[in-house]
Fold:
Amino acid sequence: MQLTLPYKLFILLVILSVPVTDSANLVTEGMAIYNPGEELPGGDTSHHNPRDRNAFTHPSANMSFPDRLRFELGDSIFAKIWEEPSPSSAPASDGLGPLYNAHSCEECHLRDGRGHPPAANWPNDQAVSMFLRLSIPPQTIEQHQLLQSGKVGVIPEPVYGGQLQNFAINGLTEEGHMHINYTETTVKMADGAVVRLRKPEYKISELNFGPLHPDVMLSPRVAPAVLGLLLLETIPESDILRLSDPDDSDGNGISGRPNWVWDRLSEQQALGRFGWKAGNPTLIQQIVNALSGDIGIATPYLPSPTGDCTSTQASCLNQPNGNTPLQENTEASSVTVQQLVLYTGNLAPPARPDAQKPEVLRGKRIFQRAGCHECHQPSFKTARSIHLSEQSKQLIWPYSDLLLHDMGEGLADHRPEFLASGREWKTPPLWGIGLTKTVSGHTYFLHDGRARNLLEAILWHGGEAETARQQVINLTRVERNALITFLESL
Structure:
């Protein structure tokens, strides 16, 4: 039947009169509703440069010219190779180690992208962008009280400290080397397709400072991509806490909860936002922890020039350091740290040119139907900020609630961190995830890189995400492809 023009206009008016309230409940021919602004994940900070290998390296698009110059200076510090702490022609670069995991920030976050587990296709790869966190259960009343105070999140391994360092400066031996052994399991999809998953097992060899504590807990960590970090810091705390449902009062099986951690600058507990278990409350604390633990660089915020060396490692503690009056009697001054904050905090999420394509919207609808959006919260409005004008009052689309969720036994590391249990992980932001192959040259996902593609990553979800996982298992091949297309558009 051919519709007359007045009848067509009547239908159009009816469609336009429908209130757009909850995009998760509005579908058109199997497609989710497009929300204005979705094509700009970082709001006005989003850049429109090509989605190529440098897609994560661009500054916030709304930065002023003076701040862009400071951004470039921060970039040079991020890429700087720190040297051994011996007399040199560049004292501002002294201070590496004595024990360390990388020579520079960029060594872990190449082109500001995601790291990877050591693999055969990276020659001589010694886990430069992945390391093992170490801790032990509390052994004494004092250690129990320290954890209960909330001022520390873990008790470090007594000999090797908070993480295994697999490199050392000249004249000192490294702590040891991480080894990964994978065993395969299979998941059969409803349409008969079989997906192979690899389960990792971690061991440490060549321990050069004696045996590990018998109760040591290991947690592998891959360096995440560095995108929109100050945007995440500017999300109002109340908006994040509003999503928390630790007792699952709504009965949907999702019980996200915040990780309350110690803010060393304000000397009080604060909402954790950064790290795989939300162990750091601010970007500056995340950065100074990485400088100290990963590279061995002292700052006014963590002034020990020997990094993660413990009291039992005398040969490490006796090494020369790079402290200099030029850097506030440390190895990296507070100005240097602030330049790193400005740089890493203003790495802009790339725009999404395909956000309105039908196949992307079909995949978005499947993402919503499976319940993935319950944890991967699509959007927030950042707070008004005088000091962070670029991030102020932006509609952003990180696809994370920044809360802790029980992800099941399959992903458990059995290593608590502040309030995070050994089965809980923070929901990682998904913006930029579709560019991992382009930027980083691989498609290894999750906290330890065990997943070799996005589908494997989904199928490792358990615990609170088990229902969503089953939904994905029951998809047809066409539906799975649409879901992956949506994720790759982010």
Summary: Residues 24-489 form one domain. The chain has one domain: 24-489. Confidence is low (pLDDT under 50) at residues 1-29.
